[in-house]
Amino acid sequence: MSPEPANEAPAKRVLLTDDGRLTSGRLAGLSMNRAIWVLAWPVLIENLLLSMVGLTDTYLAAQVGSAETDAIGGASYMTWFLSLIGVSVGVGATALISRSVGKGRMAVASAALGQTILLAGSTGILIAIGVYLLAPTIALLLFSAPDAPGITAGGHAFVAYLRVTAAGVPFTAVLIAVTACARGAGDSRRPLYAWIAVNIINVLVSWLASGVDLKVVKDVVGTDGAATVETVTLLANPLSIDLGINGIALGTVVAHFVGSVIILVMAGRGVWGIRLMRRRVRPHWTTMRRLVRLGLPNFFETTGMWFGNFAVILMVGMLGAEGFLGAHIIAVRIEAMSFLMGFAMGMSAATLAGQYLGAGSPELARRAVLRCALVA
């Protein structure tokens, strides 16, 4: 038997099966509908939990006082803006990693993971410093006292909350961006575990550190038929720390720190099919430029939306009545639950479009996006 020619080309890797199933990554072997479901349901639950945590923070602030409720209302818009950093880096990471996984180039995807962490962490540190320094200026825009110079009591609470929260911005950016990396690799389920831990820690630490009791207000009808309002304590706070709104902010910082540690441990273990390695965290400017180029349009788009909403709360703040900002944010948080399916389907569409394009099938990418849009 004659030996094979030394210069014979290796067999080309099959990236898609005959019936359109991916052959690499966590979505390998799944039908399109099954892949959409596997990607979407963890994102839906995660965002629902985050919405409930936001409502819990507002509830705790209301137990402290109406000024603190207003402060949470204004600060929630600032924390939304801060999260856009991690989201935008994550959009670039999802696109780059999903395309690489679709091509079966796991080493390239792992390199993008390391650069995502570096970019999100360093950007988060710079933003945190800016937020800490600019908090009083922002408070002047939202909480100017109508009859006296300076800011209202809600403004002082706003500054305190925002400055404590600023310490957690780098952890938040890393947590959001690395979660996007996992989803780009086709795994939405394992990052959900990290976010469940974040939500539980956030609620517990915020409640314990704020020093408030869990109370409800209800109408009580007396023997004479007259109705009175009564406050009932459901659960007394077992600690005597009593940090007020600073305690609520501390809960967010501690939760996001723990969440970032959990998600980085997952990345280091390679449970998503891509792995974080120390050498991949050194600056690689080509990969970083690609992440910025892919994520920057999303940042401009979402920032434009943010400015529109921020203009609304400026108008609410100009009304001057205490409690208006708090009422506004409660309504917005409830309204935001209607967007959750859109977020889940959007993430599924982004991941599948990237992986199908990487596998060389624009037609399947288009079909996946249309199916996700139909479900949404």
Task: Walk me through what this model shows.
The protein has a two-stranded antiparallel sheet. The longest helix is centred in the N-terminal third of the chain and has 37 residues, at 66-102. The protein is built from eleven helices and two strands. The protein has 376 residues and is mostly helical. It is elongated and about 80 Å long.
Short description:
The protein is mainly alpha-helical and 376 residues long. The protein has helices at 32-64, 66-102, 106-142, 153-166, 169-184, 189-210, 245-269, 285-318, 324-336, 340-358, 362-375, and strands spanning 214-221, 227-235.
Strand portion: under 5%
Helix and strand content put the structural class at mainly alpha
Helical proportion? Answer: over 70%
Biggest β-sheet, characterized?
2 strands, antiparallel
Number of H/I helices? 11
Sum up the overall morphology in one term.
elongated
**How large, in whole angstroms, is the Cα Rg?**
24 Å
Q: Would you list the SSEs in sequence order as H and E?
A: HHHHHHEEHHHHH
Task: Give the mean pLDDT.
Answer: 87
> Which strands sit side by side, in order, in the main sheet?
1-2
Task: State the distance separating the first and last CA atoms.
Answer: 60 Å
Low-confidence residue ranges = none
Task: Give short descriptive properties of this protein.
376 residues; 5% strand; single chain; mainly alpha; elongated
Layout of helices and strands, plus pairs?
Layout: H1 32-64, H2 66-102, H3 106-142, H4 153-166, H5 169-184, H6 189-210, E1 214-221, E2 227-235, H7 245-269, H8 285-318, H9 324-336, H10 340-358, H11 362-375
Antiparallel strand pairs: 1-2
Helix pairs in contact: 1-2, 1-6, 1-9, 1-10, 2-3, 2-4, 2-5, 2-8, 2-9, 2-10, 3-4, 3-5, 3-8, 4-7, 5-7, 6-7, 10-11
